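User: Teach me something about this protein's shape.
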Amino acid sequence: MFLKSLPEVLSRQDDPVADLAVLPLFHVCRLASESVKVLLSGQGADEMLGGYHFDRVLKQIGAIRRLRSMPGARRLAALIGSRDPKRRYLLRWDDLKSSEPGQLPGKMRYDLTAPLSSELMERIIKSPIPPPYDRTLDAFYTEVPSHRGPLDAILGTLMKGWLPDNLLSHSDRMSMAHSVEMRVPFLDSRLVKFCFELPEALKIRRGVTKYLLKRYAVGRGLPPSLAYRRKRGFPVPWDQWIRGPLANPVREILEASSWMEPYINRGAVTDIFREHEQGASHGVLLWNLVVLAHWGQRMGLSA
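Assistant: First, the predicted structure itself:
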């Protein structure tokens, strides 16, 4: 079912926005359209009130500040980075130690929110390539002030980019594909203003994300087992699918994209696909390439 709907899902997006949530969202909206015309979405709550995994990120930032003042810090940082490649970039900035409390360099904000690592980008994109982070991005990421604290800096950046350019964009298009209206009550302008005036301690406290919202919900009668359950996204088992039933269709999509030849290292993509089949987790990168390939074909691009 998902394979058959893939061309329509990608076409409905118009832009090459690579978020796997579009697949289940498309089908949920189709199912909803059989009985309702308006849906309510909780989008915006994570970005305003500290959802996602930012409790762990704040702990890491605090630990790194302490780490940099310890004897042998560089050697210890290298050891930690080798064991946790996803967070390795957190250990690179000398200016983090000397920055004002709570402030985050723009490059760090970029890496905290970027879906693909620079190492993977360098593997697949033919050189010479411009650096993935430059002065234009720096202006974007540092426009949101960080003097209130690192959490508000990250959330403000997400509200400025990730929320409107990705989440709201594909939600609108997937719902409109089935003539369903999706409303976002958390993004009422008065509520947004209120949330960004709250102290960070009311957003994440003792490892509890969206602390104030959960306390409010329980106070209004929501069972704690629901309010405090482990956060789940809106996933599909894409990683497993492209190791199994969708492996050949995905290969065909990528191989048919001759327009990408001047830019993408096909040998590296083949290696990455093989690594994924053998257990590595490259599903996000492969989805990005599928979306880009389909978009280029639809736009009539050629090598």
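Now, about its shape. The first strand starts at residue 38 and ends at 40. The mean pLDDT is 83. If you'd like, I can walk through any region in more detail.
User: That's plenty for now, thanks!
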